[in-house]
UniProtKB/TrEMBL annotation:
InterPro entries: Inositol_monoP_superfamily, Inositol_monophosphatase-like, Inositol_monophosphatase_CS. Gene3D superfamilies: 3.40.190.80. The keyword Magnesium applies. PANTHER family: 3'(2'),5'-BISPHOSPHATE NUCLEOTIDASE, PHOSPHATASE. Its cofactor is Mg(2+). It comes from Micromonas pusilla (strain CCMP1545) (Picoplanktonic green alga). Mg(2+) binds at D29. Keywords: Hydrolase, Magnesium, Metal-binding. GO terms for molecular function: 3'(2'),5'-bisphosphate nucleotidase activity; metal ion binding. GO terms for biological process: phosphatidylinositol phosphate biosynthetic process; sulfate assimilation. The keyword Transcription regulation does not apply. This is Predicted protein. It comes from the Eukaryota. Belongs to the inositol monophosphatase superfamily.
Length: 87
């Protein structure tokens, strides 16, 4: 996913991925992007703020989707907005 590279290099501050509920994310689609974003100082979790688990097989079991952001501060704001949307 080249979109993670765009966040890591600073050309975007945020990437949100919310696929249909029946879709299961695959580890190989996100593992390299996770490494690039985190090493650049960004944060990547599922939409519930849970860490992504790349060691549980071929699928990522995520809550609603994936949030990748360029900074911890922005990430916290996005997760708070998503949580408020659910209330």
């Amino acid at each position: 996913m080249a979109k993670y590279g765009v966040v890591a290099r600073g050309d975007a501050e945020l990437y949100l991925r919310f696929p249909p509920a029946a879709y299961r994310e695959k580890v190989w689609d996100h593992a390299a992007g996770y490494a690039v974003v985190v090493e650049a100082g960004g944060v990547m979790t599922d939409a519930g703020g849970n860490a992504l688990d790349f060691a549980s097989g071929r699928f990522l079991d995520v809550e609603k989707g994936i949030v990748a952001s360029a900074s911890p501060e922005l990430h916290a704001k996005v997760l708070a907005a998503l949580a408020a949307e659910d209330e």
